[in-house]
Amino acid sequence: MESTKKILIVLGHPHNESLCSSLADAYLQSAIENGHNAQLLKLSDLKFDPNLRFGYKEKDKLIIEEDILKSQKLISHADHLVFIFPNWWSSMLAILKGWIDRVFLPGFAFQYQKKSPIPAKLLKGKTTRIIITMDAPVWYYKWFTGSPGLTFLKKGTLEFCGITPVQYTLLGEIRTASKEKLMDYIKKINKLGSKGI
């Protein structure tokens, strides 16, 4: 078995009764059963303004809600982050993008430096698994649309903030999948949870 890890599972789906929710529960249960300290953060349960209204320019006007502070604390505590969300319009859905905008702030996730064009990465030492469900075939998402949601989260956010390695699992053709195929997907995620990867 892999060494015991502190794991934060981020469920980026607006509905708690979804395949993504089942995948998150499967990962969580398996991780806990195998000795990992795992927690599930459902973005649909949080109360926050997803709009970073003033950007980074007027920090004094920015209200940091309790659920945003809670999210930052959970990320800081975790060794391994797991993001589970559906592919909508070749990217991620609004609730996850808004949460990222509000949580991954300068001073927490990265820090601009006066003498360097490259920001300091403040979340080093953590690893990530991205799990994306989609109606399209995985090959279509990767080769025809260029994996935009995956690239945005992997390179534009997580690696930018120092989180590496970033691994991913893409689950395709959800709309037409049989019950057996969906159960295979859940078993696959269950196995990842047992290893904490």
Write up what this structure looks like:
By secondary structure, the chain is of the alpha/beta class. The protein has a single domain, classed as 3-Layer(aba) Sandwich (Rossmann fold). It is built from six helices and seven strands, in the order βαβαβαβββααβα. It has helices at residues 19-33, 66-77, 94-103, 138-143, 148-158, 179-195, and strands at 6-11, 37-42, 80-86, 110-113, 116-121, 127-133, 166-171. Strands 2-1-3-6-7 form a five-stranded parallel beta sheet, sandwiched between helices. A two-stranded antiparallel sheet has the order 4-5.
Task: Produce the secondary structure layout.
Elements: E1 6-11, H1 19-33, E2 37-42, H2 66-77, E3 80-86, H3 94-103, E4 110-113, E5 116-121, E6 127-133, H4 138-143, H5 148-158, E7 166-171, H6 179-195
Parallel strand pairs: 1-2, 1-3, 3-6, 6-7
Antiparallel strand pairs: 4-5
Helix pairs in contact: 1-6
Concise summary:
This protein is an alpha/beta fold. It has helices at residues 19-33, 66-77, 94-103, 138-143, 148-158, 179-195, and strands at residues 6-11, 37-42, 80-86, 110-113, 116-121, 127-133, 166-171.
